[in-house]
């Protein structure tokens, strides 16, 4: 590695922060991305770990509030939870025109979970990697923003895609869903191959665009923090870090909101009979 004395060069520093902590399922050893390029049997265990932990935090907070909720003057935590629930419920009522008991809880889960994953980008860029490297298991790499990992965002969008297929078949029936793919937009049977191509691309573009949109925005935001930390002296970093962090909070909220809204829109489209 390019090291100047005991200090990493900017190139190595930036590259190090873009590496995931990975587990090789063939050998059950910890590796970095540079060691095993393109290997299918690799898990980004840092992304999986922080996703699960943040999901558990989300469930724990809402469970605590649900068990201690009062009809009197609510405390700050209960007020925040009630605002989030009211916000997601209103969006579901405005967008989803069908009848389903799962859409509102799904929208709430997506919004809060994605928001928490995005919020990890506000932590100091070297805090958790330093703790992982020097205080625990001498981890060779650690990325703490799960939504900046394309594997996580596409996995979530794949779950949404499965729900789209489920509701399309449940509401329209397998025959109705097939006719929708084969006879839209051109109704003549001779256009069935063209219709399948057009509708197939339209259908597949939904989960791909959903996952890549979240990944692209969060990866870019994370990369800017890394560039600031890697290219500027420590005493001047706050001049750019603070304004970017304030602006990035808006991006964090907006990306969680968009993922939730687009999920509701896609499921609403899948639930319509025509």
From TrEMBL:
<dbReference type="GO" id="GO:0046933">
    <property type="term" value="F:proton-transporting ATP synthase activity, rotational mechanism"/>
</dbReference>
<keyword id="KW-0813">Transport</keyword>
<dbReference type="GO" id="GO:0005886">
    <property type="term" value="C:plasma membrane"/>
</dbReference>
<feature type="transmembrane region" description="Helical">
    <location>
        <begin position="242"/>
        <end position="267"/>
    </location>
</feature>
<protein>
    <recommendedName>
        <fullName>ATP synthase subunit a</fullName>
    </recommendedName>
</protein>
<feature type="transmembrane region" description="Helical">
    <location>
        <begin position="214"/>
        <end position="236"/>
    </location>
</feature>
<dbReference type="InterPro" id="IPR035908">
    <property type="entry name" value="F0_ATP_A_sf"/>
</dbReference>
<feature type="transmembrane region" description="Helical">
    <location>
        <begin position="102"/>
        <end position="120"/>
    </location>
</feature>
<keyword id="KW-0138">CF(0)</keyword>
<keyword id="KW-0406">Ion transport</keyword>
<dbReference type="InterPro" id="IPR000568">
    <property type="entry name" value="ATP_synth_F0_asu"/>
</dbReference>
<dbReference type="Pfam" id="PF00119">
    <property type="entry name" value="ATP-synt_A"/>
</dbReference>
<dbReference type="GO" id="GO:0042777">
    <property type="term" value="P:proton motive force-driven plasma membrane ATP synthesis"/>
</dbReference>
<dbReference type="InterPro" id="IPR045082">
    <property type="entry name" value="ATP_syn_F0_a_bact/chloroplast"/>
</dbReference>
<feature type="transmembrane region" description="Helical">
    <location>
        <begin position="150"/>
        <end position="169"/>
    </location>
</feature>
<keyword id="KW-1003">Cell membrane</keyword>
<comment type="similarity">
    <text>Belongs to the ATPase A chain family.</text>
</comment>
<comment type="function">
    <text>Key component of the proton channel; it plays a direct role in the translocation of protons across the membrane.</text>
</comment>
<keyword id="KW-0812">Transmembrane</keyword>
<keyword id="KW-0472">Membrane</keyword>
<dbReference type="InterPro" id="IPR023011">
    <property type="entry name" value="ATP_synth_F0_asu_AS"/>
</dbReference>
<keyword id="KW-0375">Hydrogen ion transport</keyword>
<feature type="transmembrane region" description="Helical">
    <location>
        <begin position="40"/>
        <end position="62"/>
    </location>
</feature>
<keyword id="KW-1133">Transmembrane helix</keyword>
<keyword id="KW-0066">ATP synthesis</keyword>
<dbReference type="GO" id="GO:0045259">
    <property type="term" value="C:proton-transporting ATP synthase complex"/>
</dbReference>
